[in-house]
Design goal:
single chain, 312 residues, mainly alpha, Serine Threonine Protein Phosphatase 5, Tetratricopeptide repeat
Amino acid sequence: MNYLKSFLSFFVIICFAVFAKSETFEELQTKAQNWDSEAQYKLGDIYFEGNDVDKNYKESFNWYSKSAMKAYAPGEYKVGYMYDNGYGTDKNYKKAFEYYMKSAKKGNPDGQCAVGTVYSSVACGDIYGVKTDYQEAFQWYKKAAEQGHAPAQFYLGNMYYSGVGMEEGSDYKKAFEWLMKSAEQGNVDAQSEVGYMYYEGIGVEKDGKKAFEWFIKSAEQGDDQSQCYVGNMYYDGNGVEKDFEKAFKWYAKSADQGNPQAEYNVGFMYYEGRAVEKDTRKAIRLFMMSAEKGCKDAQYMLQKLDLKSEQQ
């Protein structure tokens, strides 16, 4: 399980609230100008997303900041996010953390998750001005996760899985519990990891059918690792009826995204002529692409082919 990838995926899965159609833009603007902090926050969202107006990060930052000035926790979080990513303002990681923390202390789950992510970052001391502290990260993730925050549930599950920040080390059952909570809310990475835990029988009884159910949910949303596992399951007939054509299809989807194991698998199917016409040149090209990314199977296959050619 790629723990680092789990944390890096945080900023990709941030969701902004959608402007409520029950209030007109003019009504919101009037409220915001009268220092209604929620209306100011909503205007920030509108300008950020470009809903009914031209997208304008500076104007978005302006309204989020006004909301934060009144200690409105969601607004404080968004100001932190804008500083973190340089939207509408210069990047300032220390200010980002400051606003994340303000929001988190008021119980805002987005802020709590963001604080957890900062503390879990190996680079946080250099840019955010605080030291890496996995135990602190764990506590903030837990606060957010207990409020039903899907990304925080995912990160908390990863911490239980890896044992990072845990005095007693890994706890796979708790990892599975929190990853499942996140997966049930549609978190793609969590769905993939729940599938993996069912596939390997980690923290839960091994179950090929359930593994396939969760892998396919994630795969259909574009997760390359899950696509490769779906290919494996069709290839082996594990949890689903064996089908080489479907295996090839899912391997190819994953390989198209640069997944090295999938590149090897597609190459192997070309090499064997399984579900596709045999094509040794394509196979070798794919083996080379995969091997360059460190895939041991591909490296072994290329060595094997070299030895074979030497013996002829």
